[in-house]
Design goal:
Blueprint (H helix, E strand, L loop, with lengths): L5 H20 L3 H7 L5 H28 L2 H18 L6 H29 L2 H30 L5 H20 L22 H10 L1 H17 L2 H12 L2 H27 L7 H22 L3 H29 L5 H9 L2 H17 L4 H22 L11
Helix pairs in contact: 1-5, 1-6, 1-7, 3-5, 3-14, 4-5, 4-7, 5-14, 6-11, 6-13, 9-13, 9-14, 9-15, 9-16, 10-11, 10-15, 11-13, 12-13, 12-16
């Protein structure tokens, strides 16, 4: 983060804190609902699935809010809602209240994430944005590496301690930003003040603008298929291993490949991102997709060899650290300055691909030979690359005119 404006460094570090808070609770939430609230499996699935879907869908409106309102206020509101939700979750007992609070957590984090991306676009030049996107992705992975082990330690004392610590971390970060943000002033680059048209476009007109941008549609669909491949890869592989082998071998493999994935992302993300340029985005996307394909072939061939699984995951992870920031830069490339938030919000819908991964994995393993799963993911990778290529070759949409 060297050379970034103080406001971007503060927001990136806040992203780390919020991710630690999520890592403290979300990976173990199904266990909490089962053991502490005695929810049946189908009820747990309803809570997790509905809240995740609501959070993703809200991101579309959240992007519109980012374009219309003060970003600092939105950040503080999102973080306050995030903190409050975690404080209230231990007191919730009903299905509807659980869905509502968990959806609020997901929506608040989505709003923060979109606002962070829009702030990066305002404060940094195009050349530095890819580094900021990569830095955020690295910090998010660091947060996921810290949160779950810490939660295991806390849960030995009390099952609700992780929730309270998540809320305290978010509340402390909120109070810190309340003090810091007013000191940072205004961004030197584009702002909504330079684009009064943003204040004249309502939500319906914004949706119409997004719908008419074929590039954005192609990129969002391509991102959804890419997210289907990478979004839930650990649970996807664990489901495959349990069906193809046994649960003991699944625990061995997953316990090793997760640190390999985290290590690759944390150590190589910045090094690779330094060489990514806007004019070479499509080339990098092809390279990242190639790593995905080679990694998936490695999964097919790995069989009982843990070493092969480690090598395949390392190659697969190289595709992850290339494609994730490149997708952000694609959207940054086509988004009008006054609609950055809305475009990032639209892009967030691609997370529905990750949400669909467990369903696709389950159906594939239930009705086809186990290895078919990886062939399906290879097809999704190629389809994603094709959609991005189509979008990249589309002409830019005319700029939106002010609405009287």
């Amino acid at each position: 983060m060297k050379g970034f404006p103080p406001v971007i460094r503060a927001l990136l570090l806040t992203s780390l804190v919020l991710t630690i808070g999520r890592g403290l609770t979300l990976p173990f939430f199904a266990i909490y609902l089962s053991q502490q609230r005695h929810f049946a499996p189908e009820r747990i699935g309803m809570v997790l699935g509905a809240s995740l879907t609501l959070g993703i869908v809200f991101s579309l409106y959240g992007g519109y809010l980012v374009d219309r309102f003060n970003k600092h206020r939105l950040i503080l509101c999102a973080m306050a809602a995030f903190a409050l939700s975690f404080f209230l979750l231990p007191f919730s007992t009903g299905t509807a209240s659980m869905i509502g609070l968990l959806a609020l957590v997901n929506s608040a984090y989505s709003l923060y994430s979109i606002t962070l991306k829009a702030s990066i676009a305002e404060w940094l030049s195009v050349e530095r944005r890819i580094q900021a996107f990569s830095a955020n992705y690295t910090l998010v992975n660091v947060g996921w590496a810290i949160g779950p082990p810490l939660s295991v330690v806390l849960a030995k004392s009390s099952s609700v301690l992780p929730f309270y610590l998540s809320g305290l971390l978010a509340a402390a970060a909120t109070l810190t930003l309340v003090w810091l943000l007013p000191r940072y002033g205004h961004p030197p680059l584009a702002s909504t003040a330079d684009h009064p048209v943003a204040d004249k476009i309502n939500f319906r007109q914004t949706l119409d603008t997004l719908r008419r941008d074929k590039r954005l549609i192609y990129f969002t669909l391509g991102g959804a298929l890419g997210c289907l491949v990478i979004g839930q890869f650990a649970s996807c592989i664990s489901q495959y291993l349990i069906v193809a082998f046994d649960s003991e071998f699944a625990y061995q493999v997953v316990g090793i490949i997760l640190p390999v994935n985290a290590g690759i992302v944390i150590t190589l993300q910045y090094i690779i991102s330094r060489n990514i340029r806007r004019e070479t985005l499509m080339r990098w996307l092809m390279v990242g997709s190639l790593f995905f394909l080679i990694g998936l072939v490695g999964f097919i061939l790995a069989n009982h060899s843990i070493v092969y699984w480690m090598i395949a995951v390392a190659i697969f992870s190289l595709g992850e650290i290339i494609i994730t920031p490149v997708e952000y830069l694609f959207i940054d490339f086509i988004a009008p300055p006054h609609l950055k938030g809305s475009y990032y919000g639209m892009q967030s819908l691609s997370n529905l691909g990750g949400a669909a991964n467990p369903l696709v994995t389950g159906l594939s393993l239930a009705y086809t030979p186990p290895l078919t799963l990886f062939y399906l993911l290879m097809c999704a990778t190629l389809a994603s690359l094709w959609l991005f290529h189509r979008g990249f070759n589309k002409k830019l949409m005319p700029r939106v005119q002010a609405v009287e």
